[in-house]
Amino acid sequence: MDGGYVRRAADAAGFLCANVNTPIERVRDAVNQPFSRRTFRRLAATCCLALAATLVGDWAFAADGPAAVVMEISGTTRPPLAVHREIAPGTRIGLAPGAQIALLHYATCSIVTVAGGDVTVTEQGLQTAAPATQSAKPGPCPRVHRISLAGPGPLGGVVVSRNLGTPTPPVVAAAGALVLVTGTGAVKAAELLDVNGQVVAAALPIRDNALKLPETLALRKPYVIRFRIDGKSDAVDVPISTSGPAAGGVLVLRLE
User: Fold this and answer.
1) pLDDT in tens, 143-164
2) What's the distance, Cα to Cα, between the start and end of the chain in Å?
3) Burial of 197 (0-12, 13-18, 19+ CB in 10 A)
4) Cα(6)–Cα(9) distance, integer angstroms
5) Is the per-residue pLDDT at 80 higher than 70?
6) If we measure between CA atoms, which residue out of 95, 65, 67 comes closest to residue 81?
7) Residue 238 pLDDT
8) Cβ–Cβ contacts within 10 Å for residue 191, how many?
9) Quick one: what percent of the chain has pLDDT higher than 70?
10) pLDDT tens, 183-220?
């Protein structure tokens, strides 16, 4: 089996992994390689397992960073915080009388609301001290990805490219997901494109460095979120795939 055959078959398997409803004959014709149906299925399964392992590895790597993100805040805190600011483990937050904060804790997938007193963020959860009070409710399990602003290249399972295409693997997101952009730089503008560069949703509304993906996105289809970042002359393209949950969820893109 020559190298060209392997490359073409792997490319086709990768395409099928992101587009599982594509007829095998169509993909076979696209790569001009008459490999057997059995071989193709085996390569496609390998590709899907590799993609899943990469995404899991990305989450494990991201878990070494911040442990929570601010979802709501009112009143005065020490240190001063803002909505959608990530919180590192070991951070102690002081809440002035009447102040309240709601944190989405990554590891426990819970939203914890704390009022008054002090709260310490850990990798395992939140620790409060009197007179602080807290209440918790189930929240979304966020997908966290690191995004390099230094230039095109793979990092933590994500490919950031200023050239549209079908990078592998893309960031998995759901239609209607809340996309939180944290880290360096404020988002000035964002739009959603298909992989051919056609605009799907222009001027996505941005609030507190966050946006919501359209709820009408097709399942198992690749898209590109194009961000304009304050202080950056070039756009940052983040490929996504709607092969995750049917709808909703939280996607955290950490710009570095």
Assistant:
1) 888 877 765 543 333 334 433 3
2) 41
3) exposed
4) 5
5) yes
6) 95
7) 87
8) 17
9) 66
10) 877 899 999 999 888 999 999 999 999 999 999 898 88
Q: CA nearest 253: which of 86, 53, 122, 108?
A: 86
How confident is the model at residue 39, as a pLDDT?
Answer: 53
- Token representation of residue 82: 């803002």
- Residue 35, CA distances (Å) to 43, 50, 208, 241 in order: 11, 21, 50, 27
